[in-house]
Design a protein that fits this description.
alpha/beta; six-stranded mixed β-sheet; 8 helices
Length: about 220
């Protein structure tokens, strides 16, 4: 299992996590969900001797992609997104010349590293997580002790249940979880810990998941 360089940056007023991913021994890195402060993202990469060679987006919501215009002005790099998300999102289609559409299971090359794109719809139709080595960057699909909302445009609680129970819950227990927001008391978890503590992993069937997930908000 290849080692992974991960730099976690908490940026912006919505407690977003932005990530730099790559090989520890190579200069190339991907920036995951470039938002809020591109100069800070660049500075972190430079501090670690890294160069941003691509961007990858977990989904199209503003708080995850609002740095794309600035990033693309500074760096002529490809932007990887799920095909389903590009079709869903006019916000992403405005970057059509830079977008590289992915199909479920495609791999994103970052220097010598390959990052697997896991299509995990539910929060949006083309939400995706990024899996490499023993690490998962989960965007707004899976949080520590939580999961993404399904009541926004494009949300689908049935799809969210399948993404959690049939995709993410089947990853190795030791997989490190790096979520899209700093919503918990710790910034990193594991799939094993989430199976124990995350209420959205506790339901044996779709009906019970929906009864809990779609209960009225207080």
């Amino acid at each position: 299992m290849k080692p992974l360089y991960v730099r976690q940056l908490q940026l912006g007023p919505m407690e977003n996590f932005v990530y730099l991913l790559g090989s520890p021994d190579a200069k190339e890195v991907a920036v995951v969900d470039p938002a809020w402060d591109v100069a800070a993202i660049e500075g972190a990469a430079s501090e670690d001797g890294k160069t941003i060679t691509c961007a990858v987006v977990s989904h199209c919501h503003f708080d995850h992609i609002n740095g794309l215009p600035d990033l693309l002005k500074r760096h002529d790099v490809p932007v990887f997104a799920q095909k389903a998300e590009v079709e869903f999102s006019p916000e992403l289609r405005q970057f059509a010349s830079s977008i590289k559409s992915l199909s479920p299971g495609d791999e994103i090359p970052v220097g010598p590293l390959k990052i697997k794109a896991l299509h995990t719809p539910g929060h949006t139709p083309g939400s995706q997580c990024f899996y490499c080595g023993s690490s998962l960057v989960s965007g707004d699909t899976l949080f520590i002790k939580g999961c993404g909302r399904c009541d926004l445009r494009g949300g689908d609680p049935d799809a969210m249940y399948r993404s959690l129970s049939q995709v993410l819950a089947k990853l190795p227990d030791e997989t490190k979880l790096f979520p899209g927001h700093d919503y918990a008391d710790v910034p990193v978890s594991t799939i094993a810990e989430e199976k124990k503590q995350n209420p959205y992993f506790q339901f044996p069937d779709l009906a019970s998941f929906l009864a809990f997930r779609m209960r009225p908000r207080r």
